[in-house]
Amino acid sequence: MPDGMTHVLRAAHDTQNTIAVSLQMMATEHHADAEIAHVAADLLHWTRETIAQLAELAARQGIPLDRAADEPGLFQQMRASMASKAKGPVAALLLLENLRRLYLTASDASLALELLAQFAQAQRHTEMLELSTQRHPHTLRVMKWANTMIKTIAPQVLTNA
Amino acid sequence: MSSSRIVDLWGDRTPYSAGQEWPARVDEHLIAEPDTWVPSASLLHSNGDAMDIGVRDGRIVGVRGRAADRVNHGRLDVKDLYGWQANHAADRLHRPLIRRDGELVETDWDTAMEAVAGTCRHVLDMSGPSGVGFYTTGQLFAEEYYTLTTIARAGIGTNHLDGNTRLCTATAAEALKETFGCDGQPASYTDVDHAEVIGLFGHNVAETQSVLWMRMLDRLAGPTPPQLVVVDPRRTQVAEHATVHLAPRPGTNLALLNALLRELVAHDWVNHAWVDAHTVGYDELVKVLDPCTPQWAAGICDLDAADIERAAEIFGKAERLLATVLQGVYQSHQATATAVQINNLVLLRGSLGKPGCGVLQMNGQPTAQNTRECGANGDLPGFRNWQNDDHVEQLAEIWNVELERIPHFAPPTPALQIFRYAEQGSINFLWISGTNPAVSLPELSRIRSILASDNVFVVVQDIFRTETAEFADVVLPAATWAEKTGVFTNADRTVHLSDKAIDPPGEAKPDLDIFLDFAARMRFTDKHGAPLITWADAESAFKAWQRCSAGRPCDYSGLSYKLLRERGGIQWPCNDSAPEGTERLYSDATFWATASECETYGRDLVTGASVDKIEYEALNPHGRALLKGAEYLPLHDPPDEDFPLFLTTGRTIYHFHTRTKTARAPELDAAAPEVWVELSASDAATLQITEGEPVLVRTPRGSVRGLARITQVRTGTIFVPFHYGYWDTKHPDGSSPYRAANEMTPTDWDPVSKQPLFKLSRARVEKVNDDA
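The joint structure predicted for all components is written out below.
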């Protein structure tokens, strides 16, 4: 059984990495939807910062976590690049589905940062609390963006599916 | 007035001092003595200069600036002096065209309009309202936009209506909404008469609004000249007059603005009493600004930190500070976030709503303001909030339709997304009025393939057979300025009436009549089965729009055609409480920013994610101005080894948009007949390019061939004007060189305002070897 510290740090780190991989795949898969591709790249910038900062804090606690964000694996890259060739209603539906998954991934990551904050408060671990407080808005931003894009495109995509 | 104005672009100086009235100077160009003079204003830029059109024997024979008008005091831009000749061009569209066996052939109005209405009905049957899209302009009149909006929102019930104003003024509107809760230009051109400091951000006013520049030049020549702080990567005429000229690396405007604001905070050049009383968000803003030192920004922007400090000190110590903004901000990276920081600059100084104080988020087109107000620019009419059911209910009452008829389940669709839906096949009917996307949108090869697709029925309504018309299934010949009546509003809220002076050529019709014909054929009705459109001509359309605008910031209820004919330009809001119009908004620091009044609850300035009503109410319970900060982000697609330069695009004073009118005026055409490429002396030396030699500019998307001009543009940055297309040259087929700058621009836009980033492409310049 891992201790509480290891558990919350790993959960936060894992979920941020899932966001990072999703964003990279979306930027590839939806390059024809310029706004999706570009904002995904912007959000990736902050997600990478969060991952690095989590890893640095974990290292100081003697918990080894990767500083660099995960990259999509070979299979995932192939899938994104094949999916990017989809046209018309299929491409639009794939985008809607990816945004839905991104929202869920980001809410998972948001919960993980909340666990981190609660643990930090119980342990009076100021540094960990600060990290969680500072990075949480960036994860919420991913959720809000995914939610906005879903609301914006869903009527068109689903009407023409 | 001789053709010397082609050379002497801003004419003679009439110097004046701070607080004095700008002296009149009447500009005119006539080729014969007119029988009558007909009042109008300029349709070839956004300044709204009032003029009278000289008519003799049913033809325009010239124009004269109106001395008594508040906007221009008699002066005219060089385009206005000569551009009217396009009305009489031999190649105006005289009859409708319809595509038969792949060719556009002449037809009658009934056949053309039945094809339009019949196809629209068919698409509605097959896919519903979401299959229908409208892409309009910033050059029709208010009555026409309001009619089109009523048709699209309440007749068809589609979310897909936007203007080419998305390319020129969307960021201005969005930045004003984010800061003040609602669109509406805070300041007035008369603030130039009083300002002690004018900050011009990406605003080459000398060419884009040359009459406003004449006003600034006259202040500069007077006894109490204002200081100018100019942000522009080119050493423009405006920059030549600057106390401080900052030429940042393209794409870094936000880093520069954040550093300027941080200096204001660090030196306590903040008007705390005003900020505390009238704004929210100060502490959050200061947190975002904290890391943005002048040294940090100097590295990112490739500027001298001392120059940033000097500019900040000028802003920080100014009592009467006027800031102006245009495409250098709006069409660049993090556009809305940057424009909002310029609003923050005047808010931190408390420089608002008083003579010489404020911000002018400019427009690029003569009637763009009306596109915004009337809801043809991706907003609901009267600056109403699509997320606020009470606002939508007001429209439902005005139009007498059920609430559900008006789409408000998602934000209105921006232009490039309309084209994306067409590309994906979910929009099958696209009606383009008064704009030329085959030259003006980014990444033209993609736009051409969408317009050429068999899945989209394309209607083009224009005055010439444009590059876009070549892709149309039906072409509708329109009347233009001087050939129809209506009002339009400039960038400082001045409303002018433009009266009909001459008949349109052939069978061409006013855009209003075309829309009304369509509405009649579609039999749009209200909820009681009566016709949805209750007006039949320009003046009754204006009255319908007045009713829709009443009680909103852009209130036209106190205006009338009669009053506008008598008085000339009047600034909205004009109503019972302000019968003379309103020179400055927010003079009492009261904003349209409570949750029940505001046009938007706001967006995240980085991602564009929507803020909801509850969040907004918590953030801004008393409806104050909002200080919103944003972090600088690196560019999406920076220069690299293959494409080491920045390409930026823009205007020249001699042309408007895709030259459909200005190139048909011989004087203007001769002044700038061909596309050119500006580069710095140092880049020219490295590439061994000499002045006037043909060069090829290449980006990952396309290329353009033009003549080299060695100018004082930033080293590492090149400039290509965007006006040139193909109607007066061979269409690009591989054998002739491309000349539209948008062959090269990327499909990328600001996620908040959805305005394309025309100012940012990575590029290279190659020598052309004609012998090869």
